[in-house]
Structures are given as structure tokens and as C-alpha cells.
Specification:
46% helix, five-stranded antiparallel beta sheet, 10 strands, 11 helices, three-stranded antiparallel beta sheet
Length: 306
């Protein structure tokens, strides 16, 4: 059945085994061929952007050995679909694998992942790419306006977030525009034999301040593994102590993400709103109502895993 669906795609005709991969949040249809290749199918209407993603993965693979190789891209007009073929990275995703490992192993996986992310952040945006300062502020302003309209939200929280972001937006000035994975968290890490072996799912890629890629650590990743999250920051800085400017930007981007998460949750469902609001309040608490730029989970345990 799968071969009929995938007929004409490179590597399919000679495949001895084909299985569908159903795990993950992507809407792509995913098939693993001989445990060696990964075929991703998606609507033909997405082909232009996904071709850019495919080409960007090719570029990323020249900067890091922990990125899949992008092998083929094409169209299936009869099915109104397009496809890309990548090398398949066997193993478990970080959400599943990390909790079963020692804290030192979790930290080391984060450290290597952070080092590899820093390599990818060497990829610069095209010269005509929009200014990060302008684009990020415009997006933030839209979310802050939507936040203000959520009637049941504590007015003190609205004021805290709006005030903190407004006082620190100056940090955006002059920030570079480079590659952003934009979904850097354990679910997109592949772990095999207790080691980090790959970063996957580049569908949300963007360009902007590369440090923005780390701001979801305190929102999502710490719920899976605090040692991993600390390791990712340490590895990103190649074992050096992060400077004050990093933490200032980290805190600003964390506050901005809290705002967007609350708004997105409200637009999606009450259940999502309740979940993301709880996550957001944890972030606010980790930063002591944003009187601290270094989150408590890093402050309290940094240095324990070297």
C-alpha cells in the first residue's frame, strides 16, 4: 500500500521495508525506508516554502554532522502532494529518552546539542532579510494588544509583562539575522545509545536573532530535563559562562514568548489556554516576576554537571 502511495519517489522502488512514522506534531506523512531514508509528504501548496526548507537543511548539513542529509525533492501532481527525502536518524526523541538517563548524561546531551546549534547559527540571512528589531517589535506589539483583550487574565500580570517588555525592547537594536531552527527542544532531538545524534524537524525555520532559539528551554525543555536545558546553554557557549547581555536577551525573549503563548492558547481552546497559562506562570516565577534575568532552574544548578 505504501509503495503505491510513494511510487516514483527516489529510494522507494528498491526498498525492502517501508513503515509509516506517526509520532510527532508535524502534519507531514512520514515513511521510513529500510531504516535508512525518511520520506516526508506534504500538500503541493506548501512546496515553495518546503523547497527552501530542503535547501536550508542541505546548508545546515555543511555546518553540522548532526543534521539529516537532504537527498531529493519533488512533486506528485496527481496526488496534489510534494515530497522530500532525507537520511533517517534512528533512535528515540529526547522527550522519551532523557527521563531514563542519568543527570550527567542528560546534561551532556544538552551540551552537544547546544554546541551544534551554535554552528548552525553561523548561517546568515540574505542581505534583504527584514530587520530583526523591526519585525520582532511589530510581532510583539500585536501580541501585547491581544493580551490586553483577555478579560479574565490578571491585570497585574498584563502590566508586569507589558512593562518589562517595553523597558527592555532596546535590546533588540542591532541584533543579527541568522538561521533559527525555531523549535529547539527535546522532542526534536534524536538520542541513541544515551547520546545526542541529531537535530530534526526544520519546518519552522526562520531568520533573526540566533539567541531567540534558546528561549523555549525555560518554557518546554525544563519540564523534560533541567540538566539538558542547562547543558544546552553551556554547550552553546562552549563551556564558558554566559554573559549579562545573553541573559538580558534571554529574559526579554522569555517574556515575549509568555505573551504569545497565552494569546495563542486563548485562541486555540480553553484547555490549551489553561495549560499554557500555567507554563507561563512558571516562567514568570522562575524569573521572580522578571526581577531576575537568570532563571532559578539555571541559577540553582549551574556548575553541578561539569
Amino acid at each position: 500500500m505504501f509503495k503505491n502511495t510513494l511510487e516514483g519517489i527516489p529510494h522507494v522502488a528498491g526498498a525492502k521495508s517501508i513503515r509509516q512514522l506517526v509520532k510527532g506534531f508535524s502534519n507531514d506523512e512520514k515513511y521510513v525506508l529500510d531504516e535508512t531514508y525518511l520520506v516526508r509528504l506534504f500538500p503541493l501548496t506548501e512546496a515553495d516554502r518546503r523547497k527552501k526548507e530542503f535547501e536550508l537543511v542541505q546548508t545546515c548539513a555543511t555546518h553540522s554532522d548532526f543534521v539529516p542529509k537532504a537527498l531529493a525533492f519533488g512533486h506528485l501532481p496527481a496526488d496534489s502532494k510534494a515530497y522530500m527525502v532525507l537520511t533517517y536518524m534512528p533512535g528515540k526523541d529526547g522527550e522519551e529518552a532523557l527521563p531514563a538517563l542519568s543527570e550527567q548524561e542528560q546534561y551532556q546531551i544538552g551540551f552537544v546539542a547546544g554546541q551544534e546549534l551554535a554552528k548552525l547559527h553561523e548561517i546568515e540571512a540574505d542581505q534583504d532579510w527584514p530587520s530583526w528589531e523591526i519585525a520582532k517589535k511589530q510581532k510583539s506589539d500585536r501580541y501585547l494588544s491581544a493580551l490586553e483583550k483577555i478579560e479574565e487574565l490578571d491585570p497585574a500580570l498584563k502590566q508586569l509583562l507589558t512593562g518589562y517588555i517595553g523597558e527592555n525592547e532596546w535590546l533588540l537594536k542591532g541584533r543579527p539575522s541568522r538561521f533559527q531552527h525555531d523549535d529547539f527542544h527535546p522532542a526534536n532531538m534524536i538520542i541513541d545509545r544515551n547520546r545526542f545524534v541529531g537535530l530534526v524537524d526544520f519546518g519552522r525555520f526562520d531568520f533573526g536573532d540566533p539567541l531567540h532559539d534558546l528561549q523555549k528551554l525555560g518554557f518546554f525543555s525544563v519540564r523534560v530535563s533541567i540538566p539538558f536545558s542547562i547543558g544546552a546553554i553551556d554547550g552553546y557557549h562552549n563551556g564558558e559562562k554566559p554573559g549579562e547581555r545573553f541573559w538580558q536577551l534571554y529574559a526579554l525573549y522569555s517574556a515575549m514568548h509568555v505573551v504569545s503563548a497565552i494569546v495563542w492558547g486563548k485562541r486555540t481552546s480553553e484547555q490549551q489556554y489553561d495549560t499554557l497559562l500555567a507554563y507561563s506562570l512558571d516562567v514568570v516565577n522562575d524569573h521572580h516576576d522578571f526581577t531576575e534575568i537568570i532563571p532559578s532552574w539555571y541559577r540553582q544548578k549551574a556548575g553541578m554537571f561539569f
